[in-house]
Write a structure and sequence with these properties.
α2 packs across α3 and α2 packs across α4. A hairpin with a 5-residue loop joins β9 and β10. The protein folds into two domains: 182 residues, 2-Layer Sandwich (BirA Bifunctional Protein, domain 2), CATH 3.30.930; 40 residues, Roll (SH3 type barrels), CATH 2.30.30.100. The protein is an alpha+beta fold. The protein has four helices and twelve strands. The strands form two sheets. It has a seven-stranded mixed beta sheet, with helices on both faces.
């Protein structure tokens, strides 16, 4: 018997056996007027992608989904939803397993990367986020371990359908929190799940490598580092050090 995932009230599932990219399909639906809570879910992606244009291996067995959000917020605040998504993924991890978040929006379980998050925004002429597509891939049945990966893979186990139910339920709750309490509450919970302050980290900024100690995250989601040259605020980059 086929198990059909149950989504939160008011959410809509678009289930596909295969697609190039769930983000691309969700963006197409959003442009056509799809409502917030529309979730594109595919058994596999043939053209999945991660941050910075990297390809994302997406064979059958793991969760690949993209959720349309309509946050009605200034464009600069749309980036906050990546942190909202990271907390939602952390919420779905079974109790008893060690969970960490890594700036800007990776989730590690037992020291291994369990998910990838790719937020993509469409900005209206008035400077507001017209919609945000939250692409979230979660290792459920297996954990890819490729030569280019900076962290070992980890997986949650269970079924993809159950993982989709858990993720959408968590994301719905986290969006309520974000709208009700704003980014400060999200930031506080994210920091509680991040590596300890003072942890030595490297951050790749294009061809530049910045070394310092993790000093937190500011009210706009920027990474704060204490470097030998003084405090530094980083709005876009890749954190290379392991958070454990």
């Amino acid at each position: 018997m086929t198990f059909s995932p149950v989504l939160p009230d008011g959410w809509t599932l678009v289930a596909l056996p295969s697609v190039g990219s769930t983000n691309d399909e969700a963006a197409r639906l959003a442009e056509a007027g799809a409502t917030e809570g529309t979730v594109v879910w595919s058994r596999e992606q043939t053209g999945g992608r991660g941050r910075r244009g990297r390809s994302w291996a997406s064979p059958v067995g793991n969760l690949y989904s993209s959720t349309i959000l309509r946050p009605d917020c200034p464009a600069m605040r749309a980036a906050e939803l990546g942190f909202v998504a990271a907390l939602a993924v952390a919420d779905m991890v079974p109790s008893g397993r060690a969970v960490r978040v890594k700036w800007p929006n990776d989730v590690l379980v037992d020291g291994g990367k369990v998910a990838g998050i790719l937020p993509e925004s469409s900005i209206a002429a008035d400077g507001k986020a017209e919609h945000v597509v939250l692409g979230i891939g979660v290792n459920v049945g297996f954990a890819p371990n490729l030569p280019e990966m900076r962290y070992p893979g980890a997986c949650l186990g269970g079924t993809v359908e159950a993982a989709l139910e858990a993720l959408t339920a968590a994301l719905a709750r986290r969006m309520v929190q974000w709208r009700r309490d704003g980014f400060p509450a999200v930031r506080a919970e994210w920091l509680a799940k991040a590596g300890p302050l003072g942890l030595e980290v490297d951050v790749k900024l294009g061809d530049e490598l910045v070394r310092g100690r993790f000093a937190g995250m500011d009210s706009e989601g920027a990474l704060l580092l204490d470097t030998e040259a003084g405090p530094r605020r980083i709005v876009a980059g890749e954190l290379l050090a392991r958070v454990a």
